[in-house]
Amino acid sequence: MSRRFVHAALACAITAVALPACVLAAPGPSGLAVTTSIPGPDGGWDYASFDPARRRVYVAHGDKVTMIEADTGKVTADFAQGSHLHAVVPIPDTDLIVTTNSGDNTARVLSAADGKLLASIPAAKDTDSAVYDAASGLLVAIGGDSGEITLVDPKARKAVGSIVLGGALEFGVVDGKGKLYINVEDKNEIAVVDIAARKLVTRYPMPGCQGPTGLALTADGRLISSCRNGVAKIVDAATGKEIASLAIGQGPDAVFQDAGRAQAYIPSGRTGTLAVIALAGPANNTVIDTVTTKPGARTGTVDPKTGRIYLPSASYTPAGAPGQKPGVTPGSFAVLVVGR
Q1: Among 3, 43, 154, 266, which residue is least crowded by beta carbons within 10 Å?
Q2: Which pTM value belongs to this model?
Q3: Residue 261: phi, psi to the nearest 5?
Q4: How many helices and strands in the chain, by DSSP H and E?
């Protein structure tokens, strides 16, 4: 994720996992609202991901992977070790997960059974987000500030190539047919990459989008990009043509979708809101709801079975002096659960 962290005061106290708590607002048109929160260990965080095969939520949480069992709420605070973790990617049809670590610029292959380290693979400088490409069987590890991506074969446990794109790279998605799309934060564009050919194909400019961060791709070829200036762009993946420009919250850092319910979600950390975007029906390509969450909740993931959304968050103390960052309140880290 970008270095531009979001800090703000929180709207509600953190409560225990077992009971519904801290409902911040009545459900809107989507039927969604914060229903509870799952406490976790102190520390910073980046991306969250969902493992549908094992029914788990993973949070890249400082130097540890925090794992939550979706059906029970049980938390394993230190499921695996890392070094300034950014992403945790389950590899389908294997017993492997891969993490990205900017602390030592590696992609680490882990056992999904117990988090044991199987291999530590050198990757691009500032190794940040990652995405698995089923078409090639490769994990794409994205070097944020380095403008380079590393292609990792998780089964062989080695890097098999790299591609230099330039710019400040953010999140990436794949189409399952060999194409990779990556937000380029400092150029306000999406880079299109041919994975097999190891080359940049084209770039899609996004006028009106400042600092694109999160990115999602629908099955019918719509790219949804969140922008730090409170805008989401929906563009045609085949042509780069803009389909819609939507107002969302300030400080978004992720886009994720629930294909079964035909919705996409964008959490915004500065305003503490979750934009709900319709992907089908009469309200197609529009924001149909804005769910109140908490300031600081900027990344997340969704359980495709239940539709529950998981948003890492924490409380903050005011900055001590102008120009200083607010501090994270000890004991306040929790994963918000948004449900119907």
Answers
A1: 3
A2: 0.91
A3: -100, 5
A4: 0, 30
CB 188 within 8 A of CB 203: no
Q: What's the CA gap between 335 and 98, in Å, rounded?
A: 21
Beta-carbon contacts of 151 under 8 Å, excluding residues fewer than 6 positions away, are: 136, 138, 139, 140, 141, 159, 160, 161, 162, 163, 195, 198
Q: What's the one-letter identity of residue 284?
A: N
Burial class of 303 by CB neighbour count within 10 A (0 to 12, 13 to 18, 19+): buried
User: The tokens of 147 are what?
Assistant: 């403008």
pLDDT digits (tens, 9 = 90+) for 174-201: 999 999 999 999 999 999 999 999 999 9
Nearest in space to 191 (alpha carbons), one of 219, 168, 160:
168
Site of tokens 């389950």: 90
d(CA 266, CA 287): 10
Bridge partners (DSSP) of residue 68 are: 57, 75
Domains of the chain and CATH, by start: 33-339 (2.130.10.10)
Q: What burial class does residue 323 get, using C-beta atoms within 10 Å of its C-beta: 0-12 exposed, 13-18 middle, 19+ buried?
A: exposed
Q: Are strands 222-227 and 231-236 parallel, antiparallel or unpaired?
A: antiparallel
- Rounded to whole angstroms, how far apart are CA atoms 108 and 91? 12
Q: Which residue has the tokens 């102190």?
A: 42
**Could you tell me the CA-to-CA distances from 216 to 35, 41, 131, 235, 259 in Å, in that order?**
25, 29, 11, 11, 11
Written as one letter, the residue type at 340 is: R
| Model confidence pLDDT, tens digit, residues 116-139 | 999 999 999 999 999 999 999 999
CB 297 within 8 A of CB 311: yes
How many angstroms separate the CA atoms of 158 and 155, rounded?
8
